[in-house]
Design brief:
Elements (H helix, E strand, L loop, with lengths): L1 H7 L5 H10 L2 H5 L7 H12 L15 H13 L22 H14 L5 H11 L5 H7 L12 E3 L2 E2 L10 H23 L2 H13 L7 H9 L10 H15 L2
Antiparallel strand pairs: 1-2
Helix pairs in contact: 1-2, 1-9, 4-5, 4-6, 8-9, 9-10, 11-12
Length: about 250
Amino acid sequence: WNHMMRALGYSKNMKPFEELAHRVPLDFIESIKPKESLVLKQAWLLGTAGLLPSQRSQGEFSQEEEIRESEQVWQSVGKGAETMRENDWNLWRIYPNNSPIRRIVAQSYLLQRYYDRGLLRGMLQLVKETPLIAGHRWLEDGLTVVGGGYWQDHFDFDVRSKTRISALLGKGKASEIVVNVILPFAFSWGEMAGEPKLEEKALKFYLNYPKLAENEITRHMARQLCLEDTADFTACHQQGLIHIFRNYCRE
């Protein structure tokens, strides 16, 4: 839970997302019933984050029905909660689709998707049931959140796009979470819980996962090591470059 939340924050909002995960533990947010409780989950996460319209610098209540409902729910359940502040988050100079508001909403959809099993068991079962051949697509689909309704065309509260915008959590970000969080966790869980098949499968996925999008560190390390062609690299190769950078070059 902590690392999934951290992964939603990119570099600029990792710490705030970790703090939010600490303030809203997984066992608590999953205890919210009934199953049709998406609005309640969103209200708890956004309200604790201090990112509802009434909590922000303007201090205004949105006039849009979907948001009024979240505000009303938070007013009834959030009394006495220790909330974060708008200033704890980096809301400026980030790609609109990556806004923490949209990522928090995406996480609420994932919690709903894996409501029956729980997020932990749901992620482990996803790895167990995914076929090895082209399995990365299955794993990404298990985390992709298209979203609907209000968030199909909103970057933020009361900030509408003229066209339908991309998924709340697209395949690119989903693949990063799979490689950085889900597969290492599933491997460790299999080792700890005495499930060698899960351990072996997670490792196979990890070693053969297709290359992710390049970033500043992987491009820098490719130049440093004179790697002229990285077309055949896997995500594991990229993780190796990042490891060398963080544990040797940066030191």
